[in-house]
Design goal:
The protein is of the alpha/beta class. It has ten helices and twelve strands. It folds into two domains: 125 residues, 3-Layer(aba) Sandwich (Rossmann fold); 138 residues, 3-Layer(aba) Sandwich (Rossmann fold), CATH 3.40.50.720. Strand 7, helix 5 and strand 8 form a beta-alpha-beta unit. The protein binds 2'-monophosphoadenosine-5'-diphosphate. The site of 2'-monophosphoadenosine-5'-diphosphate has 15 residues, from helix 5. 2'-monophosphoadenosine-5'-diphosphate (ATR) binds next to helix 5.
Length: 273
């Protein structure tokens, strides 16, 4: 039996175990998915222990995504983003991937959204980082807005620096730039915690429009004020459970080399969100 797991602190409310176990059951894979909650500074040591114990794969979440990099060989995208959320122990040293970025892209493409034009990302924390790299790599023009403008500028500079050919246009702004940017945008992503367990949106409703595809990384609640406003404006809406699903789908496919049973994983996730 193969053991997979999630490294995080806290992990008790994670939806990853039922999502991955639904995949094992569907494809008749002899595996279990468990959670590990080491001390806050013990990320790298936990990865070494997992290798010793023949764990097949780990997902990694807050607060360990940066810490574990020193214990793995990061794939190029994970190294550029500076965060690992998936570890494959079939190599020595283990390989660290970032499937959050691919999760963003697949969330949009699954909903038939064309990944071209201008994207506005609200938030420049961990989630905003993966989103900004993902969309810039797809060739979109990426406008990063953040409450703390200097963090948006720093992230924009980091994304631009990792495209030495100058083939990516990425800019940072404060939140005051949001209305004008959103009015002209094709894609909008909320990567802040605004809207989590609260009826509040980070974007004024009156600037949303029908030519926009809106992804909210918040999945508690699934139907956020932003997505409600976006739907009312006629926009395409993508909720945060899709991002969670597709980062897991990508991790599963990385570990097993098989196509993930997306519908069954989605159902396992959505019945619990
Ligand atoms: P995560 O890893 O989930 O992205 P994070 O790294 O703590 O979490 O980042 C949280 C993001 O939400 C940041 O962009 C933060 O803005 P600041 O950089 O200015 O702190 C943003 N955020 C949190 N609360 C906010 C609020 N009330 N209004 C606007 N932005 C907020």
């Amino acid at each position: 039996m193969d053991v997979y797991g999630l490294l995080g602190n806290p992990v008790e409310h994670s939806l990853s175990p039922p999502m991955h176990e639904a995949a094992y059951e569907t494809l008749d894979i002899d595996a279990r998915y468990v959670t590990f909650e080491p001390d806050e500074n013990a990320g790298a040591r936990a990865v070494e222990s997992a290798a010793t114990l023949d764990v097949a794969g780990l997902n990694v979440t807050i607060p360990f995504k940066q810490q574990v990099i020193e214990a793995v060989d990061p794939a190029p995208l994970a190294e550029r983003i500076g965060a690992v959320n998936t570890i494959d122990f079939s190599t020595d040293p283990p390989t660290g991937y970032n499937t959050d970025a691919a999760g963003v892209v697949r969330s949009f493409t699954h909903h038939g959204v064309d990944l071209t034009g201008d994207a506005v990302v609200v938030g420049a924390g961990g989630a905003g980082r993966a989103v900004a790299f993902a969309l810039a790599d797809e060739g979109l023009t990426v406008h990063i807005t953040n409450r703390t403008e200097s963090k948006a500028d720093d992230l924009a500079a980091a994304v631009a620096a990792s495209h030495p050919d100058g083939d990516s246009a990425v800019m940072g702004y404060g939140l005051d730039a949001l209305p004008d940017l959103v009015a002209e945008a094709d894609l909008l992503v909320n990567a802040t915690s605004v809207g989590m367990e609260e009826d509040r949106s980070p974007v004024p409703a009156d600037v949303l429009h029908a030519d926009l595809a809106v992804l909210d990384a918040v999945y508690s609640p699934l139907e956020t004020r932003l997505l409600d406003d976006a739907a009312a404006a006629g926009a395409t809406t993508v909720d945060g459970a899709w991002m969670l699903l597709f980062q897991g789908v990508e991790a599963f496919e990385q570990w097993t080399g098989r196509d993930a049973p997306v519908a069954e994983m989605n159902e396992a996730l959505r019945t619990r969100v």
